[in-house]
């Protein structure tokens, strides 16, 4: 067992991206922030499934070419192999929870960002 506080961690890109509260041994758990105009490179995972739960704001998550506009309270599950792209095309910050499982040290394959 362990307890952490999100204030003890930083976002990957200073003001946005994932802030991992736990990495492994069986899953990753992160808070993710996106400021207006921020995006995250399109990619897929070979083994890990990924989930996002929107805590606040509005975000586009494009999965295999389908645009999903999600808002506070929405949840999306992404299977291994499904290409996904996250983009904050709106004028408000977004905060969401991300989980990835089963944990893999390296399991991300970048692809071209979709145009939509």
Automatic annotation (TrEMBL):
Gene3D superfamilies: Jelly Rolls. Pfam families: Cupin_2. Residues 31-98 form the Cupin type-2 domain. It comes from the Bacteria. Coiled coil: none annotated. This is Cupin domain-containing protein.
């Amino acid at each position: 067992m362990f307890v952490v506080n999100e204030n003890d961690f930083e976002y990957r890109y200073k003001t946005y991206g994932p802030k991992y509260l736990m990495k492994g041994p069986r899953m990753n758990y992160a808070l993710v922030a996106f400021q207006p105009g921020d995006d995250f490179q399109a990619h897929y995972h070979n083994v890990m499934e990924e989930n996002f739960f929107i805590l606040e704001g509005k975000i586009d998550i494009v999965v295999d070419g389908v645009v999903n506009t999600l808002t506070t309270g929405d949840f999306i599950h992404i299977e291994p192999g499904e290409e996904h792209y996250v983009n904050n095309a709106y004028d408000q910050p977004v905060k969401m929870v991300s989980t990835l499982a089963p944990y893999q040290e390296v399991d991300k394959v970048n692809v071209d960002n979709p145009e939509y």
